[in-house]
Specification:
single chain; 257 residues; mainly alpha; MetI-like fold; MetI-like; membrane; transmembrane
């Protein structure tokens, strides 16, 4: 299955290095007669791609940091602070996993419009920071930490925030890594919301910007594949470097006791 999944990726890389005249030849050939980087040169020269890279990096990092902070604090409260509505509130948060993001586009855009955040970084970032999945992952991890550790810290005079920040968060490194990577990849690949809220070319993220470039290429498949590789390469590099943390974090948060 892994090999079958890898074939389209190899085909995209192979096509991106072909001369344009060889992308539509029949019969189809895998290796080009001459490797060329003309498609990549065309993509990087005909578009404001470096600005789109910067926009994607800024918004994805901001979304990741805010999701980690807000989700971990919410999970800590649900896991360690006993109050009457804790369980119903947790189920309501989990119910958010079943709500398709597409049905929220109109009210979110209206809200951003009223707050004058259309075509701004905050307009792209804020609607993406509510993550029920991140709250679930952190809560599962916090539930597995012995209660005695918190009680000992409180006896020593630590406040709840100090327990959260100096004890729970350092222990939750694997969960933080898992949430950070999943959130960053999701924010980097997000297309629909940045496409709607970023009305100017200079505010476009990489997936949105590349879609406008690809639409102008027509049947120039080498340039289409080159733009797809340019957009997906940063995410692939992040995953290759941190795949162990992803596996450890998901496995660790899924086990209790």
């Amino acid at each position: 299955m892994a090999v079958l999944w890898f074939i389209p990726l190899l085909w995209a890389v192979d096509t991106s290095f072909k001369p344009e005249s060889e992308t539509t030849t029949i019969p189809v050939t895998w290796l080009p007669t001459q490797f060329t980087g003309v498609a990549y040169q065309s993509v990087f020269s005909s578009a404001n791609i470096f600005r789109w890279y910067l926009n994607s990096a800024l918004t994805s990092l901001a979304v990741t940091v805010l999701v980690i902070l807000l989700a971990s604090m919410a999970a800590f409260a649900l896991s360690r602070i006993r109050f009457r509505a804790s369980k119903p509130l947790f189920w309501i948060i989990l119910a958010g996993l079943m709500v398709p993001g597409q049905i929220l586009i109109v009210p979110l855009f209206t809200e951003m419009q009223q707050l004058n955040m259309v075509n701004t970084y905050w307009g792209i970032i804020l609607p993406q920071i509510a993550s029920p999945l991140a709250v679930f992952i952190f809560k599962q991890f916090f539930d597995s930490i012995p209660q005695e550790l918190e009680e000992a810290a409180i006896v020593d005079g630590a406040s709840r925030f100090r327990v959260y920040w100096q004890i729970w968060m350092p222990l939750a490194r694997s969960a933080i890594a898992a949430v950070a990577i999943v959130t960053f990849i999701g924010a980097w690949n997000n297309f629909i919301w940045p496409f709607i809220v970023a009305t100017g070319v200079d505010m476009m993220t990489l997936p949105v910007g590349l879609s406008t470039v690809q639409s102008s290429y027509g049947v120039r498949y080498a340039q289409v594949m080159a733009s797809a590789i340019a957009g997906g390469l940063p995410v692939l590099i992040v995953f290759l470097f941190f795949q162990r943390q992803i596996i450890q974090g998901v496995a660790g948060t899924g086990l209790k006791g």
